[in-house]
């Protein structure tokens, strides 16, 4: 299996259709390295959405994120979870000054058709953000039709 080479490596047709990382994924799979080489450029946090009879439960994996860095919004049934982090590390030792800066932001949006804007609860615990969103009461909009 180590002798396999991705087919037509120089061909760039797939990149025009949004599959640029597909080639990189194949190259990583067929490499001889045991350590996977991934690019985190397109990675984001993972979310799970569960629908119960009376509410939605949204869970987002956010390890190392503080609640001050999270912005939650519900607008017209669209729940947006955004994270903005600004990390700065400054150390001074003798003549050496070490400074690192890193800014990152990630966002996910999910559509919840009959989400209620009131009564939403969110809790961040051990890197897991859990959001409970109640559903709107569905009114019976059906009408009985009499036959003549």
Automatic annotation (TrEMBL):
Xref: InterPro entries: A-crystallin/Hsp20_dom (IPR002068), HSP20-like_chaperone (IPR008978), Small_HSP (IPR031107)
CDD domains xrefs = ACD_LpsHSP_like
Q: Which domain of life is it from?
A: Bacteria
Gene3D superfamilies named among the record's database cross-references: 2.60.40.790
- Pfam families assigned to the protein according to its UniProt record, in alphabetical order: HSP20
Domain SHSP, chain residue ranges per copy: 38-148
Family from the record: Belongs to the small heat shock protein (HSP20) family.
Listed name of the protein: HSP20 family protein
The source organism is Dethiosulfatibacter aminovorans DSM 17477
């Amino acid at each position: 299996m180590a002798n396999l080479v991705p087919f037509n490596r120089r061909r760039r047709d797939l990149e025009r259709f949004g599959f640029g990382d597909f080639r990189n994924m194949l190259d990583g799979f067929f490499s001889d390295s045991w350590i996977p080489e991934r690019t985190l450029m397109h990675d984001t946090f993972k979310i799970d959405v569960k629908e119960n009879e009376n509410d939605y439960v949204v869970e987002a994996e956010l390890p190392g994120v503080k609640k001050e860095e999270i912005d939650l919004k519900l607008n017209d049934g669209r729940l947006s979870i955004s994270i903005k982090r600004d990390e700065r590390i400054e150390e001074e030792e003798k003549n050496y000054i070490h400074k690192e800066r890193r800014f990152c932001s990630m966002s996910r949006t999910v559509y919840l058709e009959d989400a209620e804007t009131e009564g939403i609860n969110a809790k961040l615990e051990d890197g897991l953000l859990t959001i409970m969103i109640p559903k709107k009461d569905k009114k019976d909009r059906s009408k009985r039709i009499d036959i003549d």
